[in-house]
Amino acid sequence: MKTSPELEQASIVFLGSFNPAIFHPSWFAAHDLIPCDDQKVPKGINRTLVLPEITDFSTEDFSLQVQAQRFALRTTNASFYESLRDLAYSTFSILHHTPIIKMGLNRDFHFRMPDIDAWHEIGHRLAPKEHWKGLLHHPGLRHLSMEGERQDDYKGFIRVIVEPSNEIKPHGVHIGVNDHYEVHDPEKNKGSIELIEILQKMWSKSINSASKTAQTIIWGEEMTT
Amino acid sequence: MSISVQTQVPQEEIVTTEEHEKPPMMLFAPEDFEKKASKQEGENDTYESSLNGDLDTVPGEEKPRQYDIPMILPQSQPDPRGKFEVLQLYEGVVLSANNHSMWARLVNKTNELEEDEEAEFPLEEISYGDRKLIENGAVFYWYIGYYDSASGQRTRESKIRFRRLPALSDDVIKKARMKAEDIMKRFSGDQGDAFLDATQTDPNEKKFVKA
Fold first, then answer.
1. Do B125 and B158 reside in the same domain of the chain?
2. Edge to edge, what strands does the sheet with B117-122 contain?
3. Is A196's pLDDT higher than 60?
4. Which residue did the predictor score with more confidence, B101 or A43?
5. Would residue B41 count as lying in a domain?
């Protein structure tokens, strides 16, 4: 029986130059980007760590971590996927002078295979063992990383990894899809607009495409191009 | 729950937009590998995985691509209470609202071939934090799906989330107006100017994003 992934995550990662201390929950509340009360006090913040070097906080819907060169926003709640894009887009619409040079639209899927045979079948299909005969004793797929060129006009690549799941046991498979974008000319890039416009345009397509990729890898049908 | 914080992160190490931070623990293939791997967890990490390596190439590249070493600190997790499986997603636009309910036009994002619909939503369906966002033209997402609780209980749920976008800047509004004027002139000639004159907005109106 084909099942949906038992765990899913979507994340948006920006690489550039950030001031972590700005990204305090109160800043988001002040701009009405997250739920807050009438006094603009954010609601539902589970834990907040805000230092000059790092900001890290989470709500029931998303978590955010910002370091000097990395901004990572993630959610495991499928009913927050569209809002995750809005949150990232809105943040850097306001902070549009923030230099961002790379962006990852990421999906992670953890599938529980029905039995050990189905679990092994994925490893056999993606990494046939006959090529390893005489080289390794009992070879097995521990981590597979494949990278493909983009088929659109953007600069970047799409990378897919397959490995046994740490989260789902037994017979769990983790598939990660990194839909990676880079600014056209890093030397001339002056802010975040180029990449957040790509985010706005490509997010829905990206998360749907990643889902299709994962399902195809797991069930071996309808190979995506 | 504690979290480790590393404040001195070498700049060249934070260069990946991937979010895959957990090392693999189990192996595919021989039937007894699953058991072996779980016993040997942490014992075989003497080889840098291909994520860090320099052997991969991509089509069209003669030289191996040098991947940078990911440096990802442990990130706090969203509250993992359960899992929501989306069955249907609509994007809605508020057409009108009063103290009790709102009317909205709905676009089926799960099957975009379906015709748009209109529906009335009691305000009780909207979370308190989102009610102040209700106004004509406001955009929201309506999710219908299964919620699987941490204890395994499945319920059918409906969630409405309003889009939270920042106020448009004067510059953006000016550019949009110029673009609209250009389009109207191309298609309508003088009538386009008359139409624009009739639709000039109050400069003091709220500048929230509309549908």
1. yes
2. B117-122, B101-108, B82-97, B139-149, B154-162
3. yes
4. B101
5. no
User: Which CA distances in Å does B50 have to A137, A172, B35?
Assistant: 20, 21, 24
User: What is the mean predicted confidence (pLDDT) over B151-163?
Assistant: 91
Helix axes A116-126, A193-219, angle to 10 degrees: 120
Give the phi and the psi of residue A162 in degrees, each rounded to 5: -135, 135
| DSSP-derived pairing of the beta strands B139-149 and A70-75 | unpaired
Shared domain check, B151 and B104: yes
| Distance in angstroms (rounded) separating the CA atoms of residues B3 and A61 | 20
- Tell me which residues of chain A, numbers 119 to 158, contact chain B at a CB-CB cutoff of 8 Å: 119-120, 122-124, 127, 129, 138-143, 145, 147-149, 157
pLDDT digit string, tens, across residues A106-136: 999 999 999 999 999 999 999 999 999 999 9
ipTM of this complex prediction, to 2 decimal places: 0.81
The domain in which residue B180 lies consists of 166-211
Cα separations in angstroms, B89 against A4, A81, A200, B159, B161:
17, 11, 18, 10, 11
B14 contacts on A by Cβ (under 8 Å): 15, 67-70
Instruction: Give A84-97 pLDDT, tens digit per residue.
Output: 999 999 999 999 99
Mean pLDDT score of chain B? 68
- The whole domain housing A215 covers 7-13+101-219
Run of H or E residues at B96: strand B82-97
Last residue of a domain, one of B162, B179, B199: B162
The whole-number pLDDT of residue B14 equals 45
The beta strand positions in chain A, using DSSP E, are 7-16, 47-50, 54-58, 63-67, 70-75, 100-112, 144-149, 155-164, 172-182
Report residue B83's pLDDT band, with 50, 70 and 90 as the boundaries. Answer: confident
Is the Cβ–Cβ distance between A84 and A75 less than 8 Å?
yes
In a domain, A153, yes or no: yes
Rounded CA separation A165/A170 (Å) = 9
**Same-domain check for residues B101 and B133:** yes
Average pLDDT over residues A178-190: 91
Q: Please give the pLDDT value at position A29.
A: 92
* CB-CB neighbors (< 8 A) of B37 in chain A: 164
> What is the pTM (predicted TM-score) of this model?
0.75
